[in-house]
Each structure stands twice: as C-alpha cells, then as structure tokens.
Queue: 3 jobs
Job 1
Amino acid sequence: MLFEPFTDVVPSFFGWLNQGPLTLTIFLHTVIILPMFWIYFQEKKKLQGK
Amino acid sequence: MAKENLSVWTSIPFWRRSAAWVTGFAVILLIWLTFDTMGQISMGTDEDLKNGVDKRVPAATVINYNIDYQMSKKRGHEVPVIGKKEPFFGKEWSGEEAAALLHLGKLTSQAKNCMNCHTLLGNGAYYAPDLTKAWIDPMWKDGGPMQGMTGKSTKEEAMAEFLMNPSQYPTHARMMPNLGITADEAKGLVAFLKHMSSIDTNGFPRNFSKTVEQFKAGGTNAH
Amino acid sequence: MLTSIKTNEFAGSESKKLAMMYFRVAIILFGAQLLMGLIAAIQFLVPGFLFELFDFSVARMVHINALVVWMLYAMIGSVYYMLPDETGIETVGIGIGKLAFWVFTAAITVVVLVYIFVQVGAGTEATIWFINEGREYIEAPRWADIGIVVVVLIFYWNVFATFMKGTQTGIMTVMVANLMALAGLYLTGMFFTDNISMDQFWWWWVIHLWVEATWEVFVGTLAAYALIKIIGAKREIVEMWLWIEVLMLFGSGVLGLGHHYFWIGTPEYWWEIGALFSALEPVPLVAMFVHVLYDWGKEQGETHAKDSTAHAINNGPAMAWIVTNAFGNFLGAGIWGFFHTLPQVNIYTHGTQFTAAHGHLAFFGAYATILIGMMYMGIQGAYGVERLKATFKSKMAIFMIVFGVLGMGVALTISGYEQVLVERAELGGGWNAFFTAQELPWYIQGMVWRAIMGVVTFVGFVYLVWDLLTIGKLSKAAEA
C-alpha cells in the first residue's frame, strides 16, 4: 500500500505526513535544509563579484 | 582575488544567514505544530463522552465512567478505554461538579508538590511510583491489598483514605509523608488521578502491570 | 573573591563588580544544591532520614531550584562581566542593575526560606501564589515569577542599551538575540491549567527550550568570548564557529522539543519529529568540542613557534574548566541524551533513574563547568592577574568534582538500567513493579555509589570555594 492507513486519534496535516518510518521528519529536515543551497549560491556569487 | 580562493564555507555571512533561516523556520514549524497539538490535547466535552468520541484528554466528567487500558490492534499499543458509567464516591458528578473537583485536585497536586517524589505522565522525581495510570493499578483493585489495608470497599475511598493518612498504611520502608491533605482535597486528587489515567499517552507505560503477579510468585511464562 | 570589591582592580568597571556579586551568590547556591542532593541521596538509602520533617520532596525541590538559580546567577554574572569587554563601553544603567541584584537576591532568599519552613500548602490558588507552584524546576511561587520577570527585564535593558550604544560584535549579536528568547520563554511557564497534558506541554517549552536550545547557545557565546580572552583566538574564526553552532543548536534543539511529547497525551507524530531532530542534538556539541581543542592547539602552536617556553593560555583553571565543558557537554548532554531519546527506547526509560543520570551529567558538563570557568576569569580580572596559574587546590577541585559527578552519572545509569529492565520491561510499571525494582541489589548498589560519589563531589566543591577565595591574592603576590 502506498499510503498507510491513518492510525492516530485525530487526523491532522502532520499526522497525514506521518506515513510510516521517518516520512514526516525527513520531509521537515528537507524543507529546512533546501533553502541553504540557495543561500550558498547567493553568497558564492557575492564573493566572486568582489 | 583569484576565484579558487573564495570559499563560502568560511564566510561568516553565509553561516549567519543560514543560522537565521534555520532558526526562524524551525520556530515557525514549532508554532504551527503547537497550534495543531493544542487542538488535539484540549479537554473534550461531556457530549464527546456520551457519544463515544475519542479525545486524547477527555472532559472532567470522565470520572463518571469505568476506565480501562487495553491493547489496540490499530494503534499497536495500549490505549485508555472508557467504558460504562460507574459511581464515583457514590454518585454521578455533573459537568460543573466534576470540573470543580478536578480543579481542586490539580491545584492540590501542585500545592503538595507531588511531582518532586512521583512522576506524572513520566515527568517528575523518581522516588515514588509513576502516577500516570495509578487509577488502574492492580494495587487498588477490588479485593486488592490497598482496599484491604484501608478497610474501604471502593477504589476511590481507599485512595482518598491513603492520601489523608499515608504513613499509617506503609507498603514499603519508603513511605509517603503526611502532607495534611483534607478529605475534600483527597477526593479532588483521586479525581485528578482518574482523569489522568484516561489520557491517551500513546501506550506509556507499556504492558502496564501485566506480569507483576507472575513475578511475585517467582514464576515464569514457561510451563 | 570576597575581597574583590575592595581591591577594585577593575579600573572602575562597575559592570564587572556587579558580575562578581552575582558569582558570589551563585557559588553559595551551588553549595546549597550539593547539600540538598546529599540529603536526598541518603533518603534513597535510609528512608526514615528526616521523614515528615524534611521530606525527599522538599530536599529534591531545593536541590533542583538551587541548581537552576545558581546557574542563572552565574549566567547573568558572566554577561555583566563580558559586556564592557565586548562593547568597549561601561554598561548602561548599571545602578538600576545593582538594585535589581539586591531585589533578586532578597526574593530568592524568601522563596528558599518558604520552601524549607512552609514546604506545602492547601490546595488553593494562594499556595500557587505564595508557597510553591509544584511544577518541577519552576516551583517558584507566582509572586516570585513576576519578580523574576521584572529583574530580568532590567538586566535585559542593561545588555540591550549597552549593545546599541557600544561596538556591536558578532558574539554580542548572538547574545542579545538569545537572551531575549531565553527571557521570553519563562513566560510560557507562568499559568495554571486543570489539563495536565496542556500543563506539561508548556512546561517543556520553558525547560527544554532553555536547557537544550537557548542555554546551549549561551554556552557557545561564553566559550567564544572566553577563547578570545584566554588563548587569544582569532575573532573571525570564533565568530564563524559561533554562527555554525547557532545554526545546528537551534536547528536540532527547537524541534527536538518533540522528544518530550512522546507520552504526555500529545499526538503520535511527535515520535518522529522528536526522534530525529533530537538525535541530531549531539552534532553541534561535537563541533564545539572540536572547535575548542582546535583553537587551543593552533594558538599554542603559534605561541610556541615564537617562544618555545611560552604558553598561549593566560588563565589555567578557567581553560581547564572550559575544555571540561566542551567534552562534558558532548558526553553528558550529547551521548547520555541520545541513549534514551528515541521513542522505541524512551517508552521504557522515561521516568527512571536513567533520566536522573542524564540530568546530572548534562547540567554539570554543559553548564556548571563553563560557569565555574567564568568565575576564574572573574578572579583574574578582579585581581588584575596577568597569568592565572592553577594551584594544587584548583587541581583538586576540578579532579574531585569531575570524578564525583562522573561517578554519580555512571552509578545512576546502572541503577536506571536495572529499573528499566525490571520495572518497565519485565513488570510493565505500576506500584509493585516500582518497589520490586527499588529493592534489587544492583539498583541499591548504584544508589550507594551515587551517595559516595556525591560526597566526593562535595569535597571537590570545598576545594573549589577555598581556591576561589585564595587564588587571586596568591597569584597577584607571586606576580609582583
């Protein structure tokens, strides 16, 4: 089954993201880390522009 | 400056901006999660109880119902099961009465500093038993040792009697001190404990008190 | 330390004098914490000790409250100490800062006396307002809460106004932002609710977001300042590390709060959030350890290259405590925390002596160590000593305290392990399960060793106080 049946007491957005081993936490980690790439390349451009 | 000498990894602005982003976004997520959780752990209503709606934290009137703690196949751990109505201190408590009693009990639990010996929901000190599911502890069941010792015929009366004169009913060299708990406060505390046992703690404690009797008898599961 | 006000070597820096006043109260409260801990440790072994006179709940409450308050005192003292150095100016509004110190100290004295002599009250709002709030670590009654908020606002105004007026370094930028969060979080622990789940949800906002987020960043800032002062580390390198630490500490620590939301009635999704975010909490602690040792080696190497007999360190005892901090933070907070942070493990370890083991090692390793280091820096400044060398007493103090706390941590871990396996795993918790586990020989042996190691720690503390009182004068005399 692609999506696990919801097991917690009350359905919620975060409960829905919690689809089995680590889905929710990996999703949150990813959205936190991804924008750092953008910050990285922006800073790189600034440094090279000097 | 030559291109290869420029490293973003040693640039303070990069780390400062990243720190600001990560901290800010983590805080936003935490606030969002907090709102979601607040909705889920706010106390239910008497209507929810009557209609059998599961709430993580039921209304104070849950003290009018039998509470059990059973394995749920769906959840994969034990959950509180709210059963049939049963009298609490010999009567059924109205919404206001139950709320007032729980209020008194929660206040007393803080005023008497319960948490600096016991754990509540697993948090506190480790000098005395965890009280999360104290209401359904086998020690207090009908025909159990505590009802016999206190000479009371119901769980709630035995608990209240014990709380008022704990050092008269020692079960261990380590005793609970007399904290000057009045009869009303004791009733409140028992209501507080019963209410706490109805909270859905995601299966904590696990296998609650299942094997104590086997262990005491020196037995194992092997026959 | 006692004579530091009179000797007045700070070249008129009132801020540093105030810092020493805070340090002095901190060390007294540290002593009170250890004494209360010894009483509680004895009560585990001899249950009749002071029964219905000074019960475990009272000893334990004063034990943990003295801990929190002495650390806050030493933290506030450290900030007053570093402010003039970092901003290049005298602290703004230091007069009202001093007034706040006396108000705070008077309030703390009243609170402690009420804890000790009144102990508990009736189940009424009045008890919550005037005797104790009955919530672990933040038991202070409501009137004192409000007093603490007022004092902290004054303190924060001192820091903020000085920051705005003087030089704005990276270290102070982090400090000012972090202190705001630290102070603001206290407010989330100041209300009453009948709902125990709601109660504990917000209670953890204070406790966790203090000790696993804002206090850790605070330690990072102190270490950055201290490395510049003690070994002359380069500010650019130290500040870059500080931002990395902020990123990782807050990145893991803020949502790491979830590891307290596994079993208190909160939804199951906290299992995952709490597990992975908090599992990453040790990473910045490793980074901090590497950073301190790297800078030390680098500066020592550079000094050595210039003069083969010279030392980079100008304050031996302070540096020793800061290196202990770097390692102790990683060991006590990082390793011991990770032991039981996953829900699969925590369902059995939650609420056992395992937590107590982690608590002892983490509070000591992460906070006590660096704050003692800051006290030695204060002594050095107070007496105007150029190079403060460790005495025999300094060495005895650090050795016995570290050995004692480590011993307590290991002993509690062993007792906790017994408790986890027997009370929780085998017997499933509950009244009988609890007392069955408490009577296991291996559990009791652990508690005996904990008490012995507590005494060792206390002897180390006596050496520490003795050293703090004498080292400044001795070093000054030796240098003259």
Note: Residues 2-8 of chain C have pLDDT under 50 and may be disordered.
Job 2
Amino acid sequence: MSPGDASVNGENFWSVTVRSRLSALTGDPSLQTSDVATDLRNLLLKERSDFLQELHTINGHINALSRTSRLPAELLAYVFSFCAADSKAWREMNAGIGWVVVTHVCRRWRHIALSHPRLWRYLDFPLSLSWAQEMISRSKAIPCIVSWISGYPRTGRPPSVLGDGFNELALSQLHGIEQLRLDGFDGTTQSLEAVLALPAPDLTTVDIKCKGLFLPPNIFDGIAPRLRNVSVVGCLTFPWTSPILQNVVNLKVEGEHLSFILSTRTELLSALQAMRALEKLALVSCLPDSPTLAHTTSHVIAPPNLQYLELCGDLFPCADILRHVRIPHTGIKLRLQCETSGTANDFEVLFPFIVAAGGTPPKPFACIEVETQSRTCFVLDGERSPVNDIESWERGPNGPNLQLFLDWSVEMGWTAVDLLQAACKAVSVDHLQYLTVDIEEFSERWNMPPQKFDLPVWLDTFGRAKELHFVKTWGHAGHSLCEALSQASHDGGHWQSTLRTPLGPLFMPALKTLRLYMVRFSHLFVGGQLKLRKFLPLVLQARNLAGAPRLDLEMSTCSQKMEDELKELVDSFDLLQEPESDWDNSGSDEESQL
Amino acid sequence: MPTIVSVDDSTVPGEGSSRLLLLVSSDNKHIVVEEDIMSRSRFISKQVEGFEATSQRHAILLPFSSFVLNKVIEYCSHYRGYYLLEDDPDAAPPGRSPVREWDQEFLDVDRNMLLRIIKAAHYLEIKSLVGSCARAIADMIRGKTTEEMREILGVENDFTPEEEHSPSSKCTG
C-alpha cells in the first residue's frame, strides 16, 4: 500500500502504520490503546527533535574534521579581530550587528568569539544603546574602540543625527574609550561638543572628520594623558594650547576653507615646540598666512623625534614654516604640496630649505616629495624608506634599500631638472640601488626654455651612484641614459665618443636590470653618429667584455614596426633568463596531494 | 617541542660566512636554507640559540609539508633584512591597515593552502605572516552572510535550534 492510498482507509492506515513504527521506536505497547493522535504527535516531535540533535552532532563531527576547525582558537580569534576592527562591509549590506554575524556560523566560532573580550570592544555606531551596553559588558572592561561613521544605510536617518545611543554611551563611557573615530557628520549636534569636554583618561587615538564642528578649547577637560594620535579634519577650531597635546606622537590637522583653525605663526610654533614626542606632523590648509618670506623671526623649533613632516597649502606659508623647523640630523621624510598664483619659478624659494636645511647634516631628508597643484613633481626616497612604500620590483635582496622615483609633469613650467639636481645634493645617491625616471618631454607651447633629462644631468646627478642595479626609464631619459653609459667626453659643447670602448663615466658596474620604455630606435646617439639599434648592442658587448653582470633588458617602443625591430634586437642578445623556482615545481606535486 | 636529529657537518655546512640550516618537513624533504632568511621565525631563532649552547648542529624537524615550508621560506626570503612592524613584540593590535600588495599576491592561494600557511607561521612564530594570513582570511569572509561564510570555509551549521535562537543571536543592534 502506498501513502497515496491512505485516504481510502482514512485514519486507520496512518494509525496502524505509525503505531507500529512508534512501538518499534519506544517499545511501549500501551500506545496502541491510549489517545493515539496526541501521543503520536508528541512522539513524532520527539523523534524529530532527536533527529535534529543527531544531525547537529554529525555536523559538529564534520566541523571537527574541517581544516578551519583545526586552527587554534587564538588564531581564529585573531582572524575575528580583523573582522571586528573593520566591519564596514557588513554594516553596508544592512547587517546591523556587523562582524557579530560570525558568531552565527557554528558553535565553535561563537564560543571563541564570546570567550575573547577584546573582540567586543569595537563599537561601530549606529548601534542601539542596549546592544552597545551588551558589547561593553562582553568586553569585560577592556577600553573600547568607538567609531561613528556616516553612510550606513541601515538607519535611514540623516547622517548628522548622532542618535542610537551614541551620546548616552559616550557620556557614560568616555572614561573607558581607547580610540574615538567620528567621521562624516556636520557637527550640528551640540551635545557632541559636551561629550568632547569630558575627561578621557584611556584615550590614545582621536580621529575626527567633521565639517563645522567647534572643538572646545577645554577638550577632554584637559585630561587625556595617554593620547598619542590626533587627526582632526574639517573642524572650525583646533585647541592648539590644550595640555592634552603635550604627549602626542602623530598629529594631523586639516582645515577647511575659511575655517577658524588658523593661528599665528608664533602661536603655531609655540604649540609645536611643546610637543616634544612629535614624530609625524601634517598641517594641511591650516597654515598661518604669509604672503612673502620677507619677515622672519629667530623662533626656530627643533622637534627631536620628528620623522615625517607634511605641509600643504599656499607656497609661501609652507616655506615659511619649513624655515622655522630644524630638521633632526637623523633625517625626516618631507612632503610638500604647494600652490601659488604666481609663476612656477616661485617654487625656487624651496631650494634653500631642501638643499641646505640643517646645513651640517649630510642627509637632512630621507625622503622629499613635492607636489604642485596635485601634480607629483618628484619623490626622493632615502634609506629610511619603510618597506610598505617599496613596490615589489624595487625590493632588493639585502636591506636597507635605496630607491629614487622621479615622476613629474612639466606642464607647470616647473624647473624640474634644477630642482632634481638640488634635491639630489640633499639626499646622498652614493648607495642608490633602484631608480625610476618618468619625465614628460618639455612642451614648447608653454614657451619655456627647453629642459631635458640629458647627458649632463645624468652624469652630474648620478655619476656617484655606483651601486645602481635597477633602472627604469621612459622616453628621452632612456636615450640619454644609454648615452651616459657609453664613453663620452665634452668638447666645445658637443658630445663625442670613442666607440672602441663604449663604456662611460656612468658605467654602473652593478647594473643588472635595465628597463627602457617608449624608446625610439631612430634616435641618434653619440654626437649623432649611431642610432639606438646599432648602439645598444655595442654597449652590452662592452659590458660583457668588462666583466659586468649580464643585463636583464626590457624595452618597449612607439610603433609596430619598431616593436618588430625590438624583438629582433632582443633576440640577438644573450639575455639573462631567470630559472624557474623550485617552488613552482614542488607546487604541482603538492596540488595533486590536496 | 620539535624533534631534533643530529646531523653531520657534511650535510649542513655552517662555518662559512653564510650559515645554513637544515629543515626537514613532515614529508621528509630536506631543505637547506640560510639562517639569516629564517631569522624572522622566533621558533627557529630559539632553536639556533640552542644549537650554539650545545656546540652541535642539528636538523630541525617541522610538522608540515615541504610545500608549505617552501612557501614560508619564500615569504621570509622576500622580507629578508627588512624590519616589519608586525614582528615587533610591542606592535599595536590589528587595525584597519590593508594587506601589503606583495603579501596579497603571495597569499592568493586556495583556502586550504591559506589555512596551512597560517598554521605553519603560527608554529614558527612569524607574527607578520600570521597577521597577513589572518587579514586574508578575514577579507574572505568580510561582508558575507552566515551561509556564505560556511560555504567559503567549509563549516557546517552545528547549532541546535535552541542555540540558534539564543540571546546572542537576537542582539541585532
């Protein structure tokens, strides 16, 4: 009999069948005589419950065998900590609980999350007050990291409204907050200013991006002894004289147009002088006005631990602050982003500070980066470059490395070569290993005298760079580099060559990798005697004869015809080929084992 | 503690300018690597200190395959001689900073391999690699639904109905 036939006999079929089934399950014959329907339902529910329990047990066993579950609990908690620190992706997809969703995956994940209080200290608002308090409870008094970032779609409320328990929590818990991040509201909430006037004894980091907010002069009631990192963007005031800034290590202040954040130069320098621990300082659009450099004072500050200085704004205020800061002899990374309504030559006011700043120290700047109207003019990186700033190809086998990256547009009429040479005198290139030169050709439409990254520049600037082993250039700079690699002498304003030994003062005995992009084979070298296609093989052969390392050479050209010539040229070289790594070989074996 | 076997000097040259270590993987592959490369591993460094104390050189047996070990060596070789903030014992707890570009490519491997690397890095006490792997795993699940996370990391739902509706799941902010 099939179940489809059950309707024929009504309840009898199911009663008989299920009674029989349940009898077998329970072994209780009394069921056959009691209230069948109720008892059967209860027992079926119990059977289902047992079955589900068994299913979850089986799933638990499956999980125990999974590779994820074999991770130590502390590792999984560590993974969760990255989720908790940045749960924006969950918040944006309308998951109001953010990272806490990981506790819904399986029992072990939930257990680990609940047993690591540090995970619960990340409070990303908007949150309800009750849930925020629950998280604080689970964090077991570990100082919290509080963020309020606008743009989460969940609330549907205007981003300027700081509801959802933030103020209530902040007012009651500010003493237990370690990091405070407020981003994206317009500061109309006066109660926020009241919150910011409370003491914050555990606060180490405050990051506020808030247009129109007046930061109170008595911020945190002057009590934030652990405060080390301060970033304030867009606020109308900044408490320069507050005692909470005394121990700050990293300070960034960015003003808005017509903001009241400006102070006088004297006030600014006095405030900075009080920050003895300062290592990184960025002042963006908040510098005191200084239309010229005529007026100067003897008020020079010397932050002993300064490692990074960023000044952005009008040219003269930037230069004015720069000349009042004594650079530590250990060197700093300097970043200037300057604008001027005058001519590009106005930027020459920077030269004395770049070249002679500090005077005695041989390398006052580990890195100099200058931008004009958002165009990168050049970057010089010295040996203090952090590894994070070095692209993969620029990393050598032995540290510390040196790199130099040149990239600018001359559309501004910038005296680029002069600035480069001045800057290179400020930064020793003796141990430079990696060099990239990317310079646009000068455009005649700007009606400026022609400037090229030509042979004298190469020789004058990099003649001492005997340790270069990676060079990448584009266009004309590559042509003049090839010329500089050859034997050359200056005679009466014309460059001549002795082709029998085409190795020049820029021999670069350590050079191993050469990248020449957008070169023209028709370009004449060596006093107009040879084209690149003839000249380059001579240089390479001479290097081989001199015992120099064989070059890993890569080139690109400007047309298909030249590409074909290039391929022929490259094929004719016995270029260094990197062997395949053992890793690649062993990988295939291992993949088959997985 | 790892198992340590004695080896003779012909197997592991070590008195020259570049000292070498012999690492033996769980699949019994012998891999010779410069000590300097593996100095990022606190575990290996402690082993080497032990060798110096006993004036004997040993091979170090490791509980993971040569495939994984080679991957770890590739990482250590890449950052040879570099100071990485994450390896500093006093480094700050994890934040929002992104994974380094090279690390992203290096860890562009399948899920199982990623989990094996993080376990190996944890065993070898290479904090920076553990951190990069943890970030990579976090990136895999970030923004995903519960079901998607289970799918990605091969985890089954083992909650009982009661647990699934426990107070902690009801807290939805």
Note: Chain B has a mean pLDDT of 80.
Job 3
Amino acid sequence: MASETPRLRCSSQGSVLVVEFSDRDVLDDVAIRQINSELVRQIEAAKTVHVLICFRGVEHLSSAALGTLITVNSLVKKRSGQLRLSNIKGTILEVFRITKLDRLFQIHDTSEQALAAFPKS
Amino acid sequence: MMSTSNTGFDSGNVNVSASAEELEVLQTSVASALTRHAYGEHALFSIRLAIEEAVMNAIRHGNLSDPAKTVEARWSVGAESATFHIIDQGEGFDPAAVPDPTLDENLEIPSGRGLMLIRAYMHEVRHHGLGNHLEMTFRREAVA
C-alpha cells in the first residue's frame, strides 16, 4: 500500500515501511516539524516494524532534520524494529560523518541493499 | 537589501523574524552573489548549511523564538572569501560550554549539532560580545 503526504511518499515492502522525501531541501523548521509529525504518524499506523528512509533527490539537510532522524530511530527501536537509510548524496553523507551519526545509523548506498539487509520475518 | 561595492564585494543585510520567513531571501541573495563570484557547488552547500544553522540557532537559542525579536544577518562576498555576521537580541552564551554532540553519550540527543556543523564547514568562526554575535568566514583558497 502506498500513501503520499505533503512532505513524504510512503509505501510498504514486506515488513518494511519505505519513506521518501517530496522536497529536495530538508532544512527549514516548518518543513521539518511537518516531516517529524508525518513520520511518527506513519510509523505508528504502519503494520510493519522496520523503516527505510530513502534520500533520493535530497540536496540539503540541516541539524534539525538529523534530530528528527534520531527521534525516529528511537521510536522504531522501541517497536523492536530497525531504521536504515539509503541513497544519501555525498555532500549529505559528509554531514553524517562530521556529526558521527554514521555510527548511529545503518546507511546503505541503495534502497535495494538496505531492503536486503533487514531481518526476514 | 543588497549592494555591490567598487572593491568587488557584494554585500547585504536581512533582518530575520522568529518565523524565519526571511531566511530564504537571505539564502537566495547569498547564493546569487556566490555564483557571480564563481564559487563551486561544495562552497554553496557549505555556506547554505552554515547560514541555516547560525540563523536558526540565533532564533531558537538566542532570541528564544520571541516574536518581538529579530536576527540581523549581514553578509559580504568577494572573490577570495565570504563573511557573515549573525546577531541576535538574546543574552548570549558561552560557546565553550556547548556539549560535544559526537561523544557516545550524546549521540542520541536530537539537538545540539548546529554549532559543530558551522565550525566544520566555515574556515573561521568567532563569537563577539556576550556570544550573541557570530562571525563566520568561508575562504575560497582553503577549498581543495
């Protein structure tokens, strides 16, 4: 099943909720607050326990967006699931490395690789 | 407001309110000036991120999101460097007291990464006065 909110495109692939951003910039506070609440709502409503966030098309990311990812990671872990990230452009990957969040998140080059890495239910 | 001097610098200033709605005007003006001076894609990415973080820190932590307060953003872009002054109307802070967000014990805290990103992407970062005036400079020759 697929759904689209103003900021996110969501679909289910097996036991994984796959999320993509509608915007190329995940920077400003209003957008990030909307993304945060949409993500939490989608995860809580999902029958799946695992979440893949695909960054295809995202060009910019702020520290506030990183905060949202950390919140989502905690929520997914609380539901005994895994959060994986994929398709992160080199400049944004650098932001994850500088903040050392590449140690906290499981990051894959492609969504296919990420999907293959989730535990099979 | 934006101007070009006969010394080859483009400069301007924008007052950003608590809603941050003027931030995009600031970003667009700066990006135009950087493009005019032929700064590369990575420089544009770095400066956009640093401005975003500096202004949002000033609104949230400096002005405490008070709608009666504004953040003054002044910028100057030349062939060799780009300098930005971000000034809030808050009570200031001690930059040395900001916890290191990369420590294991702080890694899962959702906030507190703005200043470290500014320091990582800009070549000079100074705090003036009580800490409510941030000056940051991107040096073009420092780019590999």
Note: Chain B is about 30% helix and 25% strand.
